[in-house]
């Protein structure tokens, strides 16, 4: 009878140890899941910044093109204005 009780007690101790281990494994898994979630959020934020940066670079490129186009038009305008001034001086 004493041996049966100690075997039952041993089984109970092993069961409690397994439950305790499962509890801590579950907590560790939750911490890992939180870390992975934070990493995913960080990656999404970086991708948004990358997209924002790419959009910004496209905007800057568009502005540069627009400025270049305006400079060319101004050059043509001043060339034409110079020609007209010369024509007026000749008359």
Can you describe this structure?
The mean pLDDT is 83. Helices cover 98% and strands 0% of the residues. It is mostly helical and 91 residues long. It is built from one helix and no strands.
Strand content: under 5%
What radius of gyration results from the CA coordinates? 39 Å
| N-C termini distance | 133 Å
Low-pLDDT segments, ≥5 res: none
- In this structure, how is the largest beta sheet organized? none
| Helix-strand category | mainly alpha
Number of strands: 0
Global morphology:
rod-shaped
Helix fraction by DSSP (H/I, runs of at least 4): over 70%
Mean pLDDT: 83
Q: How many individual helices?
A: 1
> Topology as H/E string?
H
Topology:
Elements: H1 2-90
Task: Name its key features.
91 residues, mainly alpha, 98% helix, rod-shaped
Give a short summary of the structure.
The chain is an all-alpha fold and 91 residues long.
């Amino acid at each position: 009878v004493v041996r049966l009780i100690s075997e039952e007690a041993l089984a109970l101790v092993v069961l409690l140890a397994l439950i305790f281990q499962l509890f801590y494994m579950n907590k560790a898994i939750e911490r890992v899941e939180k870390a992975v979630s934070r990493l995913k959020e960080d990656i999404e934020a970086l991708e948004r910044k990358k997209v924002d940066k790419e959009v910004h670079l496209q905007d800057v490129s568009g502005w540069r093109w627009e400025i270049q186009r305006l400079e060319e038009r101004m050059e043509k305008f001043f060339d034409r204005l110079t020609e007209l001034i010369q024509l007026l001086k000749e008359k």
